[in-house]
Specification:
Elements: H1 10-20, H2 23-35, E1 38-39, H3 40-47, H4 51-63, E2 67-69, E3 80-83, H5 98-124, H6 144-161, E4 188-189, E5 192-193
Antiparallel strand pairs: 1-3, 2-3, 4-5
Organism: Streptomyces alanosinicus
Pfam family, one: HTH_20
GO molecular function: DNA-binding transcription factor activity
Length: about 200
């Protein structure tokens, strides 16, 4: 699930996809990511929910190790929470159980909606090659091995230049980045079918 964490089971992944697809849980995770921490009362006020509702969802997110309690801020019945670093790669859909596949597909459709809105924002907020909003589109020829090596280097670049919220230097802002690669369906190449 996350770096150094054990491999997740199909049931755990299904629960994860359902959690990440829950609109309120996504908003809670986004709030904690932006603000560093909150309790159920703060989240209820900021997200327009009851504190009982936010408290329930906080417990569920903690069970999945997506958030953790901040012990130095918590006391008595007041519990403060922060988001945990998280990284997950969805497995090959052909290896998924039906319920896991259905939950992953619902989450993927939600992500597409979010990413489409970000893509539009990037174009609207683009102020040239030195601005905060950047839009790049490229095409090239790669072998599958080269594509996978590119992905490893892409991840290494994110680790090299990115910062955790609490370690970010002055002037840093949260930046939403997306990357996808898909081969062109070019028919046959050297007698072998390519694409889909």
């Amino acid at each position: 699930m996350t770096d150094g964490m054990p491999e997740m089971t199909s049931l755990e992944r299904t629960a994860l996809y359902k959690s990440l697809g829950n609109p309120l849980r996504r908003r809670i995770l986004e709030y904690l990511g932006r603000h560093g921490g909150a309790n159920s009362t703060v989240l209820a006020r900021e997200l327009g929910e009851s504190s009982g509702t936010t408290s329930y969802h906080l417990r569920k997110l903690a069970e999945q190790r997506l958030i953790e309690e901040i012990p130095e801020k918590s006391g008595g019945r007041e519990r403060w929470w922060r988001a945990l670093p998280f990284s997950h790669t969805t497995p090959d859909p052909a290896t998924m159980a039906p319920e896991e596949y259905e939950a992953a597909a619902r989450l993927a459709h939600l992500k597409i909606e979010v990413d489409t809105a970000l893509y539009r924002r990037a174009h609207q907020e683009y102020r040239g090659p030195e601005g905060w909003a950047q839009v790049q589109r490229h095409g090239t020829w790669l072998t599958q091995e080269e594509l996978l090596a590119f992905m490893r280097e892409y991840h290494a670049l994110l680790k090299r230049y990115g910062h955790a919220r609490e370690e970010a230097p002055d002037g840093a802002r949260p930046v939403m980045m997306r990357f996808y690669a898909v081969p062109e369906p070019v028919g046959e190449w050297n007698g072998e079918p390519t694409g889909r």
